[in-house]
Write the structure tokens for this entry.
Amino acid sequence: MILKKATVLIVDDDIDVLTAVKLLLKTEAQEVITEKNPENLNWLLQRNQVDLVLLDMNFNSAINTGNEGLYWLRKIKEWKPNVCVIMITAYGDIDLAVRSLKEGANDFVVKPWHNEKLISTIKELLDKQEGTKPTKANVKTSDTSILGESEVMQDIFYKVNKIAPTDANILILGENGTGKDLMAKAIHERSLRADQPFIKVDVGALTDTLFESELFGHKKGAYTDAREDRTGRFEEAQGGTLFLDEIGNISLQQQAKLLTVLQNRQVTRLGTNKAVDIDIRLICATNLPLYELANENRFRKDLVYRINTVEINMPPLRKRNEDIVILAKHFAKLYAAKYLKPAVDFDAGALQKLKQYNFPGNVRELQYTIERAVIMADDHLLKADDLIFSILETPAESEIEADNVPLSTLEKNAILRVIEKNNGNITRAAKELGLTRTALYRRLSKYDI
């Protein structure tokens, strides 16, 4: 990988070191991230596509092993095995630095270093890493990263950082396509159960019989098609996390059975009376708003309290407009690698088209739009015409065109949509529409908005 396209993370509790390295690399690398506290490492690695870490050997932190650098090196290799790591060490700790190479570090530099030598070391490692990238047969295109710089996503990241290490039951709310399943997986990966199973079940699609068999298991002969013993998902998730998706769609009868299991922390397989103790962390998700779950004609309130120790509201993409370009570039990089295409980027027209679109299908729609564009692209630069949004998500706009609605009505509706998307912020709405604030106010007056 070329350093110009790389993201470098520097972790050192010495502000002078962070400042010096950032100044050195800011014109050499695509992005330079600095961090004083190594306990934030996992969070930073999950949120950013880091290519190389510069890691100090010694920290004044809560981890007092005498060689904290080795501890955090092992954690980095556990979380992100393919990330290059260069250890920063004092002259007196060279023996420890050599040991770090055996622990998985790629190289080490001794303080004070020569700037040219440090840059050269980084470039050589990244070039070597580029040469060991997987071929088509074993390309891994993980798209589980949850990205976002918007204020609403930063609030969610903060909350997740607090609750992930606990065993609190979590309810994830949000429209279809907002990333509820990715959030559940991210919480599991940041939890103390991360090395245990993560089991997902779409409970909304299960009949009453399948619901019990799928979740609690059955003995052979328990019902007509039960031809062999089966372990239920609760038991499969033992020690780990059980994710029940579309929880808002299960019947009142199913809710009662689920509540009993959660209260007793035991499951009983169909066809047997033997109870099995369970130790799981429960995460549920639904596209229903919380007030609908509070309707006892539809959902038991005692079950809501049981599954909802903490709730996370995943915002629709139209409420986090500033994240659209970040996500689009992430998906472009992901699918270029998957389909063995050259790296692709977006021209100004494509970026403008992305920013102006409402994305009723949320992040999922954006993902599929970019995947399609990358597959069909003839050039490394995606243009506005390359971005084709799904007609499945935009029937209303198709109907408007068919009905020959006057241009003034189309303009008024467009203005209303953009203002709503920006929560009434006229400055942001005007910018998105390509108007000045004054011009937008004139149109608001014209259409009596």
The first helix runs from residue 15 to 25.
